Amino acid sequence: MEGGEPARRDPEAEGRLHAAVGFLVAAEDGDEAAEGLAEVGKACGACHRSLGVTWPYPASELPDPETRSFHVQAQNVLWEALVAPDGGRWTTVRGAIASSADLGTGQPERTASIRAAITSSTPEEAFGAFAASCASCHARAGTAPGAFAQPPFRK
Fold first, then answer.
1. What pTM did the predictor assign?
2. What is the DSSP string of 46-110?
């Protein structure tokens, strides 16, 4: 790079990222897409950790766990927990999800299993389970979840 540091690379992490993206692109349903997206985030985070990259943004704020916007913002914080080598985000979102009656969806019977999966799993498993639950619920409702309309990245 002219006038700066050369770009650092982790070829092994890049290979994992390419494999994860391939899996995501080939996904045939919402569950596979959610799993693929979780693997992409996991690969991002592994590379960031290996290179000592820090997350340049403050942690996203979580709204009241019983509001509609909670489940969308919780997914954003789960994504941050994957790509940022910062266990604080994971601890925060995991606790908020565990304490929420229905993840802000108004459907406690559908959110009990996702809450259980998130509170007893790794960040990538939790993100995959959360995103898969979004996809299946939104498919039943006939609405497009934001998670699959656009990636949960900060603009």
1. 0.70
2. HHHHHHT----SPPPPP--TTSTHHHHHHHHHHHHHHHSS-HHHHHHHHHHHHH-SSTTTT-HHH
Note the pLDDT tens digit of each residue in 48-67: 888 888 777 777 788 887 77
Structure-token pair, residue 39: 């693997």
Q: Which sign does the torsion angle of CA 90, 96, 99, 103 carry?
A: negative
Any idea what the Cα angle at residue 34 is, between residues 142 and 90, rounded to 5°?
115
36/18 Cα distance (integer angstroms): 11
pLDDT tens for residues 75-114? 888 888 888 866 778 888 888 887 877 776 777 777 777 7
- Mean pLDDT on 125-153: 62
Cα pseudo-dihedral 26, 40, 77, 90, rounded to 10: 130
| Long-range contacts of the stretch 13-18 (C-beta < 8 A, 24+) | 13/43, 13/46, 13/47, 13/50, 14/47, 16/42, 16/43, 16/46, 16/47, 17/43, 17/44, 17/47
- The residue ranges of every structural domain in the chain are 11-149
Query: Under a CB-based contact definition with an 8 Å cutoff, are residues 123 and 81 in contact?
Result: yes
